[in-house]
Amino acid sequence: MRAESKGMTHTAATAVEAPFAVSVRDVNMVFDGVHAVRDASFDLEKGRFLTILGPSGSGKTTLLRMIAGFGQPTSGEVFINGLAVGSVPPHKRSIGMVFQKLALFPHLTAAENVAFPLRMRRFDARTIPDRVHRYLDLVKLGKLGDRRIHELSGGQQQRVAIARALVFEPDLLLLDEPLAALDRKLREEMQLEFRRIQRELDVTTINVTHDQREALVVSDEIIVMDHGRIQQKARPEATYRQPKNAFVANFIGVTNFVDGVVANVDGERIVFGHAGFAGRSGNGFRPATGVSARGALRAEQIRIGGGREALGDVDTVFGGIVTDAIFEGERVVYEVAVADLGGTTLRVFDHDPVTHSQHDVGSSVALGWNVKDVLVFGD
Amino acid sequence: MRPSRTSYPLSWRLMDAVEAIAAAVWPRSFSAAVPWLMLMPAVVLVGLLVLGLWDMADGSFRKLDTATFLPSDDYSLANYDRAFTEKLFFTVASRSLIGSLIVTVITLVFAFPYSYVMVRTRSTFLRKFLLIALFLPFFIGQVVRAYGWLIILGSQGMVNEALGFVGVAPIRLLYNYPAVLFGLVQYMLPFAVLMLAPALTAIPEEMESAAGSLGANWVRTFIHVVLPLAKPGFIGAGLVVMTLSLTDFAIPAILGGGSQDFIANAIYDQFFRTSDQGMGATLALLLVAVGSIMVGVVFALFGAGTLAMGRSK
Q1: Most confident of A301-305, B68-72, B166-170
Q2: How confident is the model at residue B309 (pLDDT cuts 50, 70, 90)?
């Protein structure tokens, strides 16, 4: 398929079977000797909101920029609406992009910024003011069109950038971490705005972020990247509940890891390491006895109490000593050293309004969880 | 207990001693005066210049007594009358003004791509090469450089020799207006590049990417984004090139060979050839006036803020 698509860029034959809004096929990117993206492949259906999530240096921005047309893949191909776009420069792609630092034009007003893509793309000049108004209304900036960029607040500038990226009705909206610089409250507000606007216009969107919460809140689908590789592509709930490997489990949510050597495998149930610590096989992991393994256990899956009876219905109980108790308002975060797990410190969230901040540093506590909540991966 | 003072390097302890002496000599309550004190050398230098100008202004109103070859004792507007009516001065003035305008435009056109590549290139080698190529002529000096052009462009120079090989008769490349303008452009280019570079550096590359994703090809990106944002740099560079070439002496003298005098050459002639100090002073003051008016007009049109000075909002 890929071989025959080469060199036939402008014929219908290049279309991949299903007309996905975006298809990325075996894309690699190497520059300055750095292999920034490795064998990336995914499809995105029209109208979906995809977030590419990863730490800095994971290749997420490089992947996004290749879709936008800034930078050619070293190998592989990007398809937009089924057509290979390898040789199409950015200004001929129908893509709206919101940049990390917004890149609003300081010499123009908000309305002129929004009108810019319409003028560059030679829209009928008579329709431009009306359309600019409509999109300024969409982002709730109806009255501020005449303001210069530096006269707007951070949140308002975000809105101008969104309006500018969408006003020419692109096939695809790309968001290159535009919320990274905002304070938390504004960021959370803008996340909901992105989601509202995306649903209102039904525009296919790819968002890049290192903020796991943002990924969970805004997306229909999440791609987790690390070291240039796509680790997992799944819906937010699935990414959270069934991480495909230890990296994903660690990157999203607060996760405790317990390392050990596999003692016994019974179907899904894997017993490994210390004192009968057991978990459920993650991502079809079927180790032989004696292989080292990691168990991943979310902080909120662990219950904490003064004794066994306070934990309720759990099938695993370990005792530990509280080494730190951090009051975070709606929850208390305990760090508990568990001697039976080789001194491993487990992080535990306590949201319970009754037991809340009952355990002092140094006190003995019981920790309980269910084996099904421990996901076991290979190293 | 803090570690012993002797654990700090000697240079730090010396600085501590200097600071202690300074504190004793110059108590804290004087500290408000420090910025003014630091401004003093510059103020004194400019002040001396103004004193000199005052003396020249006085001289410009004294006519040269052709009998005694001394300036007259009484004041008159005779020198100004000559400056505005004599054809020679008009020719020289218009030649300098038009020349400096042409030089400014050409220099900016050449300087922009140079500084753009210098600022935007990813190759550190190319950036260093361009920077060195820019600074090298500075080390040589204006007169030597102009002399170099004589060697290259003279009637038996390298260019004409090369033309001779292909059977073209020697062409007169020197001692005309284009030769002077050519020399000035070559001389001004580094100034313009150096003044444009910071302005271009200040434009985030993301702006150009954004313009691209919004549908602008590189020509439109240049016209609608880079040019307006680089305006302070263009105005600063333009002003410097314009005033420097308007007042230049060596290039018109050497590459013009006396036939292409600019105002500075005319002033020189008045002071040192005809010894008419009054006339020289008059021309000099008029040159200062023209230059000031030009700068004033540019500031009035674009505002001093276009030089990217003043606090940003």
Answers
A1: A301-305
A2: low
CB contact under 8 A, A101 and B214: no
Count the helix, strand and coil residues of chain B and give each as a percent rounded to the nearest 5.
75, 0, 20
Element (H, E) at A29: strand A22-31
Best of B120, B208, B213 to disrupt the A interface by mutation (most A CBs within 10 Å)? B213
B265 by Cβ neighbours in 10 Å (0-12 / 13-18 / 19+) ranks as buried
Q: What pTM does this model have?
A: 0.81
Q: What is the pLDDT of residues A203-238, one digit of tens each?
A: 999 999 999 999 999 999 999 999 999 999 999 999
Burial of A18 (0-12, 13-18, 19+ CB in 10 A): exposed
- Tens digits of residue pLDDT in A331-355: 899 999 998 888 899 999 988 777 6
pLDDT, mean over chain B: 89
Fold for B84-307, please state it: MetI-like fold (1.10.3720)
The nearest alpha carbon in chain A to B206 belongs to A103
Q: Looking at the structure, tell me whether residues A238 and A312 fall in a common domain.
A: no
Spans of all domains in chain B: 84-307
Closest in B209, B215, B313 to A103, CB measured: B209
Domain boundary among A223, A246, A269: A246
Residues in B closer than 8 angstroms to A174, CB to CB, are: 213
